[in-house]
Amino acid sequence: MCEEAGGAATCVSSRTSRMLGVMAMIPQVAVLKISHAMRSVVLYGALLALLGMAGCKEEGGYSGDDYTVENPQAGDYLAAMFAGSHKEWDVSSALLRSALAQSSGDAALLLAEKLFLQEVMQGHIAQALQLAEEYPALMDANQLTGLTQLVDALGRGDGVAAGAAYDALMSGEQAAQTNTLFETMVLPVLGAWAHVSAGEVDAARGIIQLNAHPAFVDILRYQQALLTAVTKPDLARVHFDVLVSQPVPSRMLLTAAEFYRTGGEAGIADDLMQDFMRDWPQAQGTDFYERKRIVIGAPLIEAQRFALGEILLEAAAIYRKAERLDEAMVMVQLALHLDAKSTHAQLMLAGLLSPESHAEEILALYQAIPVDSLFHWSTQQRIARHYYDIGQADKALTMLSRLGSERQDAYDAVLAHADLLMQEERYTEAVERYSDGLARMQEVTDKKSWAVYYARGICYEQLDAWPKAQADFERALVLKPNQPDVMNYLGYSWLMRGEKLTEALDLLKKAATARPRDAHILDSYGWALALSGDFDQARIYLERAVSLLPADAVINDHLGDIYWHLGRRKEAKFQWQRALGGEPDEVLEGALMQKLAHGLMDKEEAVQKPQQILGSSSGGDAQPAAMAGGAGKGNI
Predict the structure, then answer these.
(1) Which residues, listed in sequence order, are joined to residue 625 by a DSSP beta bridge?
(2) Is-contact 10 433, C-beta < 8 A?
(3) Which of 2, 86, 396, 453 could cross-link with 384 by S-S, CB 3.0 to 4.6 Å?
(4) Secondary structure (3-state) at 459
(5) Which residues contact 204 (CB under 8 A, 6 or more apart)?
């Protein structure tokens, strides 16, 4: 919903969030054959052995809580890993350098590989490249070294160095490390531009294969258009025509509009900008064409840097959606290495950094966005959200209130304000803001307004204005039929109110079918089955929900209830005890203590009085959901 509604993540009360579920279905991409998490485990184990920490107590290693470390670099390494896990990369890098200075052989190479990643993630490309010179074996150790060297060479216009780095990536040990995203999208584009940089235009044309992967067709066609705009301008028009004949990301629309405008076709450019404005109404009144001469007439090095930045940011967006945040950070930092003033890269970097440890850096990135930028307005809302994230709620709400008053033609700031008011459980004020936003949206219908009705319905439900809440949920489903989160919330609300059990069961079944890996929706459907008396089927769905969210207090509580009514009393108490360790709220904690002491009513009586098997199920915790407003659309 964050993508569809352009929303910022919104937390609600524990009782409300229980029914929201996880809003965004993230497309999973095969990004690594060996994940960074697994690679960290391998590195960790290898370094413990190499640095003298893998032995037993008698051999100078460790035993239980009492251990000694023979090699001081092992302590630096462990401290570095701890700092890195908390995104304190500067501290981590310093500790890794200390450990590296005291190491040699395979241990040194492993430390250097880890340090190289840390430097790139901080944007210290020069330091990373210097490290690669000091440890040439890094080139064979991982793709990141070759990728960094290739991007740097292309950014400098050094065709010889770029060709060497590309050849190394295509051969030897690194070739065996390739993965779907890198192999079929990123590397071919970099290779094509490496040939262009070296003056080998004909060799460049055949490298980008549009049919390499169905998910990357638009991205690769976009790159083909940029490439031919430099090498064969007459062919670029064909690629751009095909590209804009179907919906594409906003970033591509901007480039295509500038391509047509620069080529003297202002009418087509204006039509494309109208499409852009439908997604980004907050950009009204700014300079549409803020990037001048990026394709036609631009020097090769500038066109090349722009195109490379685009492919790196596309890769970063995919990695981010797949929750591969280290890889996303690498791609963004390499894009910034090519163009330190890239608005897109700055915004994406700010979104990847942790507010807890990089609050000032995030704010500086946002404040660097020029006032005349297309994205200045949405960035102001991101700043407000940032203030909220670092605990300055009053400042955030005041800022969003001001933004909403400044532009009566824009609805996004009003909805972002409403989102934060909901998160603060100020539901009456949130309803007013959502209603104001709906009045401003005018012709925007199913694409976004369903989310506003959904969010306002939640506020009404929290205010015990159930008829208004139900009307908003039903309106949301008219605008967005079979939307899983709305079906889940409405269906679960009916269950809690003892109303329309059959309809609730139907809605929740549809939601569970649409989101088979959403633990909260599975829990809702399992609970509906239990209320209908089908404890056996309820168990199946609740066990699946627990497997997906093993620490969730409410889901464990529900499964315990089901076990009890199936006669599995020991397992029931185990689940209730487990729920106590899942940070339940005070109401649920009291109910759990009561059930552990006295159990529940018999199954037969529960079927006669289905609401009473709920016990503590009047609420619970769930993942925060994305509401209607917020700062822009995320990745553009």
Answers:
(1) 10
(2) no
(3) 396
(4) helix
(5) 191, 192, 193, 195, 196, 227, 231
Q: Helix (H) and strand (E) counts for the chain? A: 36, 4
d(CA 430, CA 462): 11
Largest CA distance in the chain: 82
Distance between CA 101 and CA 554 in Å, rounded? 50
**What residues form DSSP beta bridges with 10?**
625
Task: For residues 127 and 326, give the distance between their C-alpha atoms in angstroms, rounded to a whole number.
Answer: 18
Rounded Cα gap, residues 451 and 143, in angstroms: 42
Tokens in use for 231?
A: 């090498």
Whether 504 and 491 have beta carbons less than 8 Å apart is answered as yes
Q: Which residue blocks in 407-518 are alpha helix, DSSP H? A: 412-423, 427-441, 449-462, 466-479, 484-497, 501-514
363 C-beta neighbours (distance < 10 Å), count: 17
Residue pLDDT, tens place only, 503-522: 999 999 999 999 999 999 99
For residue 63, what is the enclosing H or E element?
strand 62-63
Max mean pLDDT among 166-170, 208-212, 429-433, 623-627 falls in: 429-433
CA 231/CA 192 separation, integer angstroms: 11
- Dihedral, CA atoms, 362, 343, 239, 447, nearest 10 degrees? 60
Which tokens go with 412?
């996004």
Q: What six digits make up the tokens of 270?
A: 């204006």
Instruction: Please report the pLDDT score of residue 602 as a whole number.
Output: 60
Tell me the DSSP string of 171-222.
SHHHHTT--HHIIIIIHHHHHHHHHHHTT-HHHHHTT--TTS-GGGHHHHHH
Q: What is the mean pLDDT of residues 423-430?
A: 96
Going by C-alpha positions, the residue among 619, 630, 629 that lies closest to residue 19 is 619
Evaluate whether 193 touches 307 at the Cβ level (below 8 Å): yes
- Contact (CB, 8 A) for 580 and 554: no
Calpha distance 156→197 (Å, rounded): 10
Query: Is the model's pLDDT at 465 over the cut of 70?
Result: yes
**Which of helix, strand or coil describes residue 269?**
helix
Quick one: which of 21, 13, 2 has its CA closest to 489? 21
